[in-house]
């Protein structure tokens, strides 16, 4: 059974900041696509909801996951991190058996 991913308060807070800065209330789409150096890669972008998306919502902010990507993101944690190399949304995915240094590609 697929357990929906968890979105941290930090990720929702960053989404709110982005909405404030851009003046647009876009949702954060987290998708999994074939490709990347490890077989699959994350596609994270601002988008509008589609009819069959799983919508994770808090304080008016939304994170979207399409039905095809959902099994790959079961039990994953969607977070926002600020490090020396930059600030970005990150995915901690227990389903990934390997990942590469870029942090956006993984294998199952």
Note the topology.
Blueprint: E1 6-7, H1 9-22, E2 27-34, E3 40-47, E4 54-58, E5 61-65, E6 77-83, E7 86-92, E8 98-99, E9 105-107
Parallel strand pairs: 1-6, 2-5
Antiparallel strand pairs: 2-3, 3-9, 4-5, 6-7, 8-9
Can you describe this structure?
With 108 residues, the chain is mainly β. The chain has a single domain (6-107), classed as Hypothetical Protein Aq_1857, Chain: A, CATH 2.60.300.12. It contains 1 helix and 9 strands. The strands form 2 sheets. It has a 6-stranded mixed β-sheet, covered by helices on one side. A 3-stranded mixed β-sheet has the order 1-6-7. 28% of the residues are buried.
Q: Any idea of the CATH class? A: Mainly Beta
- Taking pLDDT < 50 over at least 5 consecutive residues as the criterion, the unreliable ranges are none
What's the rounded overall pLDDT mean? Answer: 87
H/E element string? Answer: EHEEEEEEEE
According to DSSP, the number of beta strands is 9
Name given to the CATH homologous superfamily? HesB-like domain
Query: How would you sum up the major sheet?
Result: 6 strands, mixed
Taking strands numbered 1, 2, ... along the chain, how are they ordered across the largest sheet?
A: 4-5-2-3-9-8
- What would CATH call the architecture? Sandwich
Shape: globular
β-sheet strand percentage: 35-45%
Distance between the termini: 17 Å
Number of helices: 1
- Oligomeric status of the shown chains? single chain
- Can you tell me the number of structural domains? 1
